[in-house]
């Protein structure tokens, strides 16, 4: 291959990515419609409607407070705050791990009947869940502040950045697994089983540093751990997360997006035939 030939590949890749981004922008009305459907469709015929997105986090927090302060005391002080700081981001990541894998398969009718950037299905799934999670987390922070828990607002300034990095990380692995699920439905079922492992191996109910040995190493191999520990630092401990945690929060979405986009772009041409 000559020097001129070797320079063609990256140029084509850049042009292809630029084309995809342009098509996504031109199809923004479809994206907006799908996000709206995800947000409002679930509770369309209920009395509270969209308000259920606020009620559920409050109910969950009340349950955590009663169980872990009155029923089953924990050695971690203000344990309900510790759980609340991490449980909602964790639910966002793990629910997208399982539900996001079916983002393409679950919309097979659209994929087979009309042309649009397939990435929109993934973006709609992530954006709608992200909006719900952010609203719930805002409610939780307000409740924590009202109860008199000493929040340090300086570390909380990093909160929007960590949330966005987590959303990018999530988008990357949804792109990966949703495209693989089109070709092998078993992927979604495997991820449902794996999600249970993440539930027990992510430090939501225990301190990450309290676990040592092989199990402690496994916990830090879990990518979810770094985001949960970042939220614990900012909300519960009132500290800026450790440098290794911050670096991993930045590196993970970069790797996730690069891998997810590469696989998704390669496989998406066969979606309609496989569905």
From TrEMBL:
<dbReference type="GO" id="GO:0005886">
    <property type="term" value="C:plasma membrane"/>
</dbReference>
<feature type="transmembrane region" description="Helical">
    <location>
        <begin position="47"/>
        <end position="67"/>
    </location>
</feature>
<protein>
    <recommendedName>
        <fullName>ABC transmembrane type-2 domain-containing protein</fullName>
    </recommendedName>
</protein>
<feature type="transmembrane region" description="Helical">
    <location>
        <begin position="245"/>
        <end position="264"/>
    </location>
</feature>
<dbReference type="GO" id="GO:0140359">
    <property type="term" value="F:ABC-type transporter activity"/>
</dbReference>
<dbReference type="GO" id="GO:0015920">
    <property type="term" value="P:lipopolysaccharide transport"/>
</dbReference>
<feature type="transmembrane region" description="Helical">
    <location>
        <begin position="189"/>
        <end position="208"/>
    </location>
</feature>
<keyword id="KW-0997">Cell inner membrane</keyword>
<dbReference type="InterPro" id="IPR047817">
    <property type="entry name" value="ABC2_TM_bact-type"/>
</dbReference>
<feature type="transmembrane region" description="Helical">
    <location>
        <begin position="120"/>
        <end position="147"/>
    </location>
</feature>
<keyword id="KW-1133">Transmembrane helix</keyword>
<dbReference type="Pfam" id="PF01061">
    <property type="entry name" value="ABC2_membrane"/>
</dbReference>
<feature type="transmembrane region" description="Helical">
    <location>
        <begin position="153"/>
        <end position="177"/>
    </location>
</feature>
<keyword id="KW-0472">Membrane</keyword>
<keyword id="KW-1003">Cell membrane</keyword>
<feature type="transmembrane region" description="Helical">
    <location>
        <begin position="79"/>
        <end position="99"/>
    </location>
</feature>
<feature type="domain" description="ABC transmembrane type-2">
    <location>
        <begin position="48"/>
        <end position="267"/>
    </location>
</feature>
<dbReference type="InterPro" id="IPR013525">
    <property type="entry name" value="ABC2_TM"/>
</dbReference>
<keyword id="KW-0813">Transport</keyword>
<keyword id="KW-0812">Transmembrane</keyword>
């Amino acid at each position: 291959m000559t020097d001129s030939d070797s320079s063609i590949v990256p140029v084509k890749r850049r042009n292809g990515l630029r084309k995809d981004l342009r098509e996504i922008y031109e199809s923004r009305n479809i994206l907006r419609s799908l996000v709206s459907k995800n947000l409002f469709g679930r509770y369309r015929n209920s009395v509270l409607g969209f308000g259920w997105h606020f009620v559920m986090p409050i109910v969950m927090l009340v349950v955590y407070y009663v169980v872990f302060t009155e029923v089953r005391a924990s050695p971690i002080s203000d344990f309900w705050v510790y759980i609340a700081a991490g449980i909602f981001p964790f639910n966002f990541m793990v629910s997208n791990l399982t539900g996001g894998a079916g983002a393409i398969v679950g919309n097979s009718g659209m994929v087979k009947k009309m042309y649009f950037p397939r990435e929109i299905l993934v973006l709609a799934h992530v954006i709608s869940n992200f909006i719900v999670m952010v609203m719930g987390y805002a409610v939780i922070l307000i409740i924590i502040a009202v109860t008199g828990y000493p929040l340090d607002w300086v570390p909380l300034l990093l909160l929007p950045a960590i949330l966005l990095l987590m959303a990018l990380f999530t988008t990357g692995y949804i792109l990966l697994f949703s495209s693989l699920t089109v070709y092998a439905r078993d992927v979604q079922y495997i991820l449902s089983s794996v999600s249970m492992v993440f539930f027990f191996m992510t430090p939501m109910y225990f301190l990450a540093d309290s676990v040592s040995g092989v199990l402690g190493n496994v916990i830090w191999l879990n990518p979810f751990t770094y985001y949960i520990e970042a939220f614990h630092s900012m909300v519960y401990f009132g500290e800026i997360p450790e440098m290794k945690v911050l670096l991993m929060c930045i590196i993970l979405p970069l790797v996730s997006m690069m891998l997810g986009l590469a696989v998704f772009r390669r496989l998406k041409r066969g979606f309609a035939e496989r569905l």
